[in-house]
Amino acid sequence: MTLNRYFRNSCKILFLYEMDYNHKSIEQKWQAFWAENATFKTSESTQKPKYYVLDMFPYPSGAGLHVGHPLGYIASDIFSRYKRTKGFNVLHPMGYDSFGLPAEQYAIQTGQHPAITTEANINRYREQMDNIGFSFDWSREIRTSEPDYYKWTQWIFMQAFNAWYDKNEDRALPIEQLIAHFETKGSQGVHAESDEDILTFTAEEWLSFTEQDQQKELLKYRLAFLRESTVNWCAALGTVLANDEVINGLSERGGFPVEQKKMMQWSMRITAYADRLLRGLDTIDWPEPLIEMQRNWIGKSVGALVKFPVPQLDENIEVFTTRVDTIFGVSFVVLAPEHDLVGSLTTDAQRSEVETYIEKTSKKSELDRMADTKTVSGAFTGSYAKHPITGDDVQIWIADYVLAGYGTGAVMAVPSGDQRDYVFAKHFNLPIVAISDSQHIEEAADPNKDGLYINSGFINGMNYVEATDALIIKLSELGLGRAKVNFRMRDAIFGRQRYWGEPVPVFFKDGVPYLIKEEELPLLLPEVDKYLPTESGEPPLARAEGWKYQDQYEYELSTMPGWAGSSWYWFRYMDPQNRAAFASKDAVDYWKAVDLYIGGSEHATGHLLYSRFWNKILKDLGFHNEEEPFKKLINQGMIQGRSSFVYRLLDEEGRGTNTYVSLGLKDSYNTIPLHVDVNIVHNDILNTDKFKVSRPDYAEAEFILEDGKYICGTEVEKMSKSKFNVVNPDDIIALYGADTLRLYEMFLGPLEQAKPWNTNGIEGVYKFLKKVWRLFHDAEGNLNVSDEEPTKAEYKALHKIIKKAEDDIERFSFNTSVSAFMICVNELTDLKCNKKNILQDFVIVLSSYAPHITEELWSLLGNAAGSISYAAYPKFNPEYLIESEFAYPVSINGKMKMNLSLSLDLDQKAVEDTVLSNADVMRYLDSKAVKKMIFVKGKIINIVV
Ligand code: ANZ
């Protein structure tokens, strides 16, 4: 449809319906216009500078969007629209993270294929998003569960499988290079991130290995690899969960118990990137708390590995310590109950005690063990180790405060230096030895890093740094220790035993995993009769009939974890239809990285860490040049629900009656509060008629009112169905329109802050838009805009908002702009301003916040050439803000009498003439002769008589 016809239609609509602001027709019209004209379709062929604004794409759940969900999307949309008016080529896409557990749970319950549920949910999400007027380039939409998309997720898995991490070059390299090295030089000179148990071999030995053994060895180096790991197994969900999906020993989803279990698992070698992930944090503009969370998650510790020999077993107990300088304070060692040496170290006399203890702790999860700082428990193995320096015998204990998966799973205990060791030593009456003669052992031991060591072996007289260095040198000479950097982060488990996820493009031959061929991608998710594990406990994919590679080899039966599809999706938006690559080199070179990413802080360590990881793998393998994927990130705060309550009267026996007492009177009665649906409460007043029909048992409800009204109590809580406080954006839009919703969500408060949803102020925002509309129209509703030259005051009002809105938006302060818009419109209304020169620029400034009404007004102003979305942001002219008048305090003989506004351009003579001829001044002077007048420009006027 041409713009002209749009213009004519809009006049007709105005004429036909009403003269006032009609949000419904305006919003429908412009949403249709944007869709038909592909207004927000983005291309790479332009001279404009690029800007990439990304939202965290949603998992399309069955519940649809509530008003909390679009908060971040509205902010990013405002920013995108603003950037367009600033001349940027903006990439602002949206899609769906559409593999996931809820659709699968639903499938298990109902038998409905998750693809069908997902499709229906996506349609609903799309409709809701369209209603809000987002400027997404929908031609770039992606869905992680579509074969066209997950083909490339599988392809990236293959790249990781075919890569290893070279510590010399500090980057990933193709596995062929490692194989070539093995073939010519054996394992010597390879400095790789790998499993612990790698073999040492010559080139000849390598070549003599069977194919199977070679593949097994290579698995220890690959970035995507299979190994036995202890996993969080959730039997109720039938799958393994990532650490961040387990909260207090229960699954994040559903709250089911989670236990530790050993299983062969696909993993990703994220630990290889630990240091780069850490360093990268210094180069990105992210919220400090988020950076801190990633830092802690990565958990870098600089320390040493120290061996404590156990001569009778011809073994060493290796410990990781960050305080090797405290070694003279070691009085025993402690192993995690799961430690490999526990069995052989335990003497017969101690065996039953040790076994009972192991049995007891196996029930506790690692998280429980870390959280429990109160209970002291452990068992003596009966064996002794040699202190590596003094050669003294130290007892070997096991205790669950030592974690199997951290460091080496063993510690050197320094009760004089470590609080937990101290408590343990006290409890079991173990020796406590001072680290240094200068140390006073007190309860909360904290070894001093600033003082000098006195009478403590050969580190006597040294400070902390010197002592640490000297000890590491000494221990290396003894062959009993070396410096070691340890990371708390573990390799990422990469698989779940579930149906609704990406199949892993792997098959097994002789027990060894092989990739399918690249041209065989995508490996499609096969159909199954049920979405449950098999009777023998195999994942649902085992149900797929005849699903074999080349009709004979078993495929991998687990699917990829929830984070796979979202760990690279920003690349796909750059080039979503590409069939030959995950994105073309040109597109990737053009869009580079995400300039602004807005999303929730709940993804701090999951999605945001994995994305940075995959980004680095793809960079190392030469597919792009960006070390970090998201340059700037903002976490939007949660919108909480504002629940409403009615107060049900109780009878003498404490049973609920059918009478409800208004808030102000409730304390005079015996009542209990009940949640009531916020959608039948308006400005905290209950619609009693709607209440009666809301549930059958309320039909006969009676009310004890105050001032003829039923006032509800309120409370801020999480927005959730069970609390009857969910507000659907569609309902708000039907009443007030999307522009009001957008402005209102921003108006609620700073973007980053959590805040309750409270519709009490929404009318004010709606009225503001009506006022905007009225600036352009006369009392009859006819367009009434003048071509006259604006006054200084009008220009001033305009240029104030041009500057304020720009300053605010550049620092992502959206709420303050909304109030500034309101002030501006009040000023223009007071000035009765209907000048085209003012209004035209004003609507451009407002357009990113309220895109529909501004499109309409823009076209009414006669801009038939295109959407306001690409109009240039008006240029701020500071001259208009220079104060041209000043309200002078006028004094007579030093006594302030009155204020008088005068132009700042006037000189002394002109000021004297004006002041002395002013009627009020003359009255004050009462015909007295003026001796002189003191005038300081922009400050004071004093008349001396
Ligand atoms: C002796 C010592 C003396 C230690 C002292 C601390 C203070 P971060 O910084 O978190 O890396 N540790 C090592 N492995 C452990 C495990 N598997 N489970 C529980 N604790 C473990 O902490 C490293 C310190 O935590 C190590 O340094 C070790 O105790 C303990 F005054 O060794 B330390």
UniProtKB/TrEMBL annotation:
Alphabetical UniProt keywords: Aminoacyl-tRNA synthetase, ATP-binding, Cytoplasm, Ligase, Nucleotide-binding, Protein biosynthesis
Residue ranges of domain Methionyl/Leucyl tRNA synthetase in the record: 56-159
InterPro entries linked: aa-tRNA-synth_I_CS, aa-tRNA-synth_Ia, Leu-tRNA-ligase, Leu_tRNA-synth_edit, M/V/L/I-tRNA-synth_anticd-bd, Methionyl/Leucyl_tRNA_Synth, Rossmann-like_a/b/a_fold, tRNAsynth_Ia_anticodon-bd
One Pfam family, short name: tRNA-synt_1
One Gene Ontology cellular component: cytosol
Catalytic activity, reaction form: tRNA(Leu) + L-leucine + ATP = L-leucyl-tRNA(Leu) + AMP + diphosphate
MF terms (GO), sorted A to Z: aminoacyl-tRNA deacylase activity; ATP binding; leucine-tRNA ligase activity
Gene Ontology terms describing biological process: leucyl-tRNA aminoacylation
Catalytic activity, EC: 6.1.1.4
Binding residues annotated for ATP, in chain numbering: 721
Presence of keyword ATP-binding: yes
Record has Nucleotide-binding as a keyword: yes
Record domain Methionyl/Valyl/Leucyl/Isoleucyl-tRNA synthetase anticodon-binding: where: 797-909
Domain Aminoacyl-tRNA synthetase class Ia: 715-744
Domain (Leucyl-tRNA synthetase editing) ranges: 295-473
Location (main, coarse): cytoplasm
Short motif ('KMSKS' region): ranges: 718-722
Database matches in HAMAP family: Leu_tRNA_synth_B
Record protein name field: Leucine--tRNA ligase
Higher taxonomy: Bacteria, Pseudomonadati, Bacteroidota, Sphingobacteriia, Sphingobacteriales
Name of encoding gene: leuS
